[in-house]
Amino acid sequence: MLRSMYSGVSGMKGFQTKLDVIGNNISNVNTVGYKKSTINFQDLLSQNMSDSGANPMQVGLGSSMATIGVNHNAGSLMTTGVGTDLAVMGDGFFVVKDPEAAPGEGQYLTRAGNFTVTADGDLVTAQGYEVLDSTGNKINVAGFDSFSINRLGEVVRKQADGTEDNSIKMGVSAPENPSGLRKMGGSLYQMTNIASANGINIQTATDANSEVGSGVLEMSNVDLTEEFTEMIIAQRGFQANSRTVTTSDEILQEVMNLKR
Q1: Which helix (H) or strand (E) holds 3?
Q2: Mean pLDDT over residues 178-182, rounded?
Q3: Is there a single domain that holds both residue 241 and residue 130?
Q4: Which Gene Ontology cellular component terms are annotated (predicted)?
């Protein structure tokens, strides 16, 4: 009876965490570049009741969380018509840098390409982080009449006389294991040794087997139909485990009443 009660409690804790994950996904359904999280469970150790038979007799002790992973499948593209709204079409990430960080530090990855241009001509994120080119330097378009970004990730800067300069290329990084990246908030990811043993490797979009879409944004890959279905499953699982706890309590109460 006590084992069943503790098993029910472990199940309730697990499904509560699952609801937390689902709630966070739903709240970011319209967040640019957001990647949904998923949770998996595993059983706990089993207690051996007897080894005398042909097969071991064991009673499980509940469940626990195995992983909370991130689904990096591409989200749908939304056309905005804004030239500084970019999307990576492939497995790569844009590379950005905290302008207040020391040299060689403060670099992050992002799929949110809702960039803007500052008064100084720097291409930055919504939080003011500098967008880096393929050489690791910030992208600056000052001194030019206009600019555009093509599918190869080339920043085509144009002078008033029609002269073009496409020497700057968008920096893209494609870690070997994107699921190992650490979420930092603000649609930013921090590199970890699990994601890539060599750190952030900045490449051109072509070298990263990706393309850059201009005038479009990658939206969240959250599917509300799936999330609401998982929410129902989590709710019923929580209720079933809570019923296990209350039933175990009722049986214990019956045992206590045997003295009367």
Answers
A1: helix 2-27
A2: 94
A3: no
A4: bacterial-type flagellum basal body; bacterial-type flagellum hook; cytosol
Q: How far apart are CA 128 and CA 216, in angstroms?
A: 20
| Residue 147 backbone dihedrals phi, psi, to 5 degrees | -155, 160
Residue 35's domain comprises 2-73+222-257
Looking at the structure, do residues 88 and 195 belong to the same domain, yes or no?
yes
**Which residues are registered as beta bridge partners of 57?**
50
**How far lies 233's CA from each of 15, 100, 121, 227, in Å?**
9, 45, 50, 10
- CB of 153 closer than 8 Å to CB of 133: no
Q: Do 205 and 228 reside in the same domain of the chain?
A: no
Indicate whether 44 and 114 sit together in one domain: no
Of the chain, the percentage scoring pLDDT greater than 90 comes to 79
The pTM of the full predicted model, rounded to 2 decimals, is: 0.87
Q: How does strand 154-158 pair with strand 164-169?
A: antiparallel
Strand 188-190 with 107-110, pairing:
antiparallel
